[in-house]
């Protein structure tokens, strides 16, 4: 999704200092475009600033005298002239130009925002949940296709019937409102029907990443406080590997692709064999949920969606019914989706992008959504043509993979009028829309757990959203000055944060307003983890904001562009990877040796690939065995693409491992004297020779 950072200063320090004094008056005294209410008292030593500050009250006083002595018409004319003069002086004529060029964009966004708020408020007033709105769509169009895949075509009626069966099975097993049942299942119609059915009886469903194995999978089940787990037959071995370490009260339900598949349980499970869910569903009522079942309210928890683990193991972000409404409706109205649109998403349904933004269009607005179990670059637009899709979804890596495929007849023989997603790199944006004939791109940015979500609604190349320059208070998000390495906000003498100027990188934050569905911060199941994402005393004492941990910049028109992530993480394959988690796992597998993990850039590749430096001067670690162990313990996006075996190690004065120099050296064998290995497509590590390095640089080898 993200582009790499560029640490080159925008203006050389000497040039900036040379002009700083001359620019101080205009840039620092004028009302901030980011915050027109941010007026500051005058500095008496600066005559122009003092004159600018006093313009409005003096001219108003003069107008009042004219009004008193010369009559109303003279007074009104004078007041009008005062207003024009004041606006020209403060904030200045440039503000009028910015307002003129951004008003169409802001107006479209404002009307969409109002429609979103009205939509959410209407559901809140009636205390409706996701199931209520979905069942209304079922009643209106029962035989319309809701979810389509290569092997399935489910109507709204079928989706509703399966969800009712799920609700009745778990209600009969004693599950009730507030209980938690995890779901580990691949992209298929039953995935949606399962969590939807559980929500009808008030049960919360953690949507578990299907790439997780071992400790990460166990952690996701336990941190979500699951009392049961539903898993697909294809994940049976992964579940059984950790079953003995799960709490004894966790019930297991296996969903089989075929009803006659064997159900096995891990040795030592105190609760006995896992239950075969298919048989239970076949005998359950499908027309409606049992009368005695509990019901979820509008603000109740709906699902948990796990982060990629930016600061450790995956964290369970809370998604309530109201939050689901806001996310799905927000992108629907902002990007101008239509109820009759057919959406294509090859993204995993356990993430917000596919599971809420796309699938929400079916559940809330009655659209058809086409899903795919596994993304295929060559099959993307052929699928869109085959299923007559009108809107496609992507992440940045997907767009690059699709663009890299050979030209094909279906490149333009499709009905896709818009694509939306996050991370379409500006370097390939124009080529992508030109080759595939895409009229509109809806780029968005946001965190599952956050409230600082933005969208690019006018296809501005490279922009991930915008801040209104004329009405910034409508949607209170900001970029504040922060340490680029730690992400810690920088504070002024009053202990408050400061907004960044134009083209000045800073951390993106969103003001928290309790009770407002679009400004509320629900955080994680782990409240301690939630507190780390909240910054206090931002622009005034006592206020709070969600801090994203991402460095963004805003141009003069308010368009926002991603720069980098702060902290000790990197992004690969659309996922945020915690170096500390990978280091811990890798150190254990390598016999508790010192391990340093960091992200390195690969030419013409999105994000940063993981690289691990292992201190092994006597070369005890067997690379083949290590690769096999990593495949079992880490998701594919977190596995290091490069290995370096250090013969010596450099420590700081406080005995911390140095990482910066290793990251700068990268994986170039001409620079690195240590042994280097790279991950082949089959996951096996092979020696990284100069010839291999040149192939990687020429983009002949891909990861």
TrEMBL record:
<dbReference type="InterPro" id="IPR020845">
    <property type="entry name" value="AMP-binding_CS"/>
</dbReference>
<dbReference type="InterPro" id="IPR000873">
    <property type="entry name" value="AMP-dep_synth/lig_dom"/>
</dbReference>
<dbReference type="Pfam" id="PF00501">
    <property type="entry name" value="AMP-binding"/>
</dbReference>
<feature type="transmembrane region" description="Helical">
    <location>
        <begin position="73"/>
        <end position="89"/>
    </location>
</feature>
<keyword id="KW-1133">Transmembrane helix</keyword>
<keyword id="KW-0276">Fatty acid metabolism</keyword>
<keyword id="KW-0436">Ligase</keyword>
<keyword id="KW-1003">Cell membrane</keyword>
<dbReference type="GO" id="GO:0005324">
    <property type="term" value="F:long-chain fatty acid transmembrane transporter activity"/>
</dbReference>
<feature type="transmembrane region" description="Helical">
    <location>
        <begin position="50"/>
        <end position="68"/>
    </location>
</feature>
<protein>
    <recommendedName>
        <fullName>long-chain-fatty-acid--CoA ligase</fullName>
        <ecNumber>6.2.1.3</ecNumber>
    </recommendedName>
</protein>
<dbReference type="GO" id="GO:0000166">
    <property type="term" value="F:nucleotide binding"/>
</dbReference>
<dbReference type="GO" id="GO:0044539">
    <property type="term" value="P:long-chain fatty acid import into cell"/>
</dbReference>
<dbReference type="GO" id="GO:0004467">
    <property type="term" value="F:long-chain fatty acid-CoA ligase activity"/>
</dbReference>
<dbReference type="InterPro" id="IPR045851">
    <property type="entry name" value="AMP-bd_C_sf"/>
</dbReference>
<keyword id="KW-0443">Lipid metabolism</keyword>
<keyword id="KW-0813">Transport</keyword>
<feature type="domain" description="AMP-binding enzyme C-terminal">
    <location>
        <begin position="581"/>
        <end position="656"/>
    </location>
</feature>
<comment type="similarity">
    <text>Belongs to the ATP-dependent AMP-binding enzyme family.</text>
</comment>
<keyword id="KW-0547">Nucleotide-binding</keyword>
<dbReference type="Pfam" id="PF13193">
    <property type="entry name" value="AMP-binding_C"/>
</dbReference>
<keyword id="KW-0812">Transmembrane</keyword>
<dbReference type="GO" id="GO:0005886">
    <property type="term" value="C:plasma membrane"/>
</dbReference>
<feature type="domain" description="AMP-dependent synthetase/ligase">
    <location>
        <begin position="134"/>
        <end position="491"/>
    </location>
</feature>
<dbReference type="InterPro" id="IPR025110">
    <property type="entry name" value="AMP-bd_C"/>
</dbReference>
<dbReference type="GO" id="GO:0005789">
    <property type="term" value="C:endoplasmic reticulum membrane"/>
</dbReference>
<keyword id="KW-0472">Membrane</keyword>
<dbReference type="InterPro" id="IPR042099">
    <property type="entry name" value="ANL_N_sf"/>
</dbReference>
